[in-house]
Amino acid sequence: MAGRQRQKMTDIELNKDYLSSLPSEIIENILVKLPIKEAARTSVLSSKWKSLWASIPNLVFAEKCLPESELIESVDKVLRVHQGPVLKFELDSDQLANRKAINRWLLVLSKNGLKDLRLMFYVYNGCTVPSSLFSCHELQHLEISGCTINAPRCFRGLKLLRKLTLRACYLERITIEKFVSGCPLLESLTLICVNNHDSLVIRSPNLKQLILDERFSDLLLETPNLISAIIFAYSLPHGFQDFSPANDGCKGKILRAIGALSSIEELDINSEFCEYLGSGPIPEKLPETFHHLKKISIRLDGSSKVVDTALCILRNVPNLKTLRLKLPCQNIWEEQRIATFSFLEQLEVVEILDVEDVGSLLAFAKFILGTAPKLEKLIMYDEDLYELDDGVGFQMKLASLPMLSSKAVILFGEVPDIDFPSAFDFLWNI
């Protein structure tokens, strides 16, 4: 008798539809984490899964190599059967260039509460995102790469946008200045290879994170609440301008570009940007001291303008905790007046990248170890370090240097991995 009851219970357990019995919230959480093709296949599991698949708020089409006609058919089909709001729409394709299809999708999405839009195209396909993009008034996150963006003639902005990322894009009928100014809540801005700018102007009172990898002749930043910034600059063929009247040419470049970043906490700049800053007057003291700046990364080359600019910045950073440098080949440290470097007082970690000359490295190590009272780590990252010297002798020379801090240690290591979304070590390849 007992055996018969156990068999009956086993039959019931085997026939039970556990997938359909899952709470709707759990099913939805599973579906939103799947690519759209895989999510659609779950509709065969049960009627409950089918109804929930047709109403998931996140639609992700990660079909880079799918032929254009198949991709258009797939997106059209999903949007046609979808029920309820679409909060996120992501499309990643190397094949798509059909402007009419993109326009059709954007018009549908603009009526469905879209908050997060990501469109990634292959830059050489000549894809254009039509002006219907700007009818998505509820957007909070916008990321576009590899295309032309056709702005409407009467641009009214995206009033709720908080994060904007543009890579390898060309803007028609609109400047970056106008685009950003039309997004009053913007907190994060990434611009990588967007147009070529004679004068790049960014006015954004709420901006907190900025990544610039751009060609320009002149730069004005009015971003008083900026906390984290990566600025990699590259000059146009005619070089950096001495001044631009539209950008308040009466000020030096260093004042226009970074002089007002009173809230900055992390800053990463390349040697070309230092060259740009140094192409105008370089003051001994900036009107604004970077009291909140705790971490800075500077890539130095042998140019006197680059070096002078870097030293000017370091003289105005009294609370720096972490310094990362690519050193120039020449020794620039013995002649520096230590009293002018307030950043040494709080410095805890120094990291050295891309060592090219052992002599300049030893001179810098001597300078830092002998003048930073709270130093904890001097870290050297370079795979070719031992090829520049006999290795053992180099370490002995370092060990013999006097150290002002009793906590200081010297470490060697490989170049660290990218750490993002921190402002440091950001690298993006088109």
Automatic annotation (TrEMBL):
<feature type="domain" description="F-box">
    <location>
        <begin position="16"/>
        <end position="64"/>
    </location>
</feature>
<dbReference type="InterPro" id="IPR055411">
    <property type="entry name" value="LRR_FXL15/At3g58940/PEG3-like"/>
</dbReference>
<dbReference type="InterPro" id="IPR036047">
    <property type="entry name" value="F-box-like_dom_sf"/>
</dbReference>
<dbReference type="InterPro" id="IPR053781">
    <property type="entry name" value="F-box_AtFBL13-like"/>
</dbReference>
<dbReference type="InterPro" id="IPR032675">
    <property type="entry name" value="LRR_dom_sf"/>
</dbReference>
<dbReference type="Pfam" id="PF24758">
    <property type="entry name" value="LRR_At5g56370"/>
</dbReference>
<dbReference type="InterPro" id="IPR001810">
    <property type="entry name" value="F-box_dom"/>
</dbReference>
<protein>
    <recommendedName>
        <fullName>F-box domain-containing protein</fullName>
    </recommendedName>
</protein>
<dbReference type="Pfam" id="PF00646">
    <property type="entry name" value="F-box"/>
</dbReference>
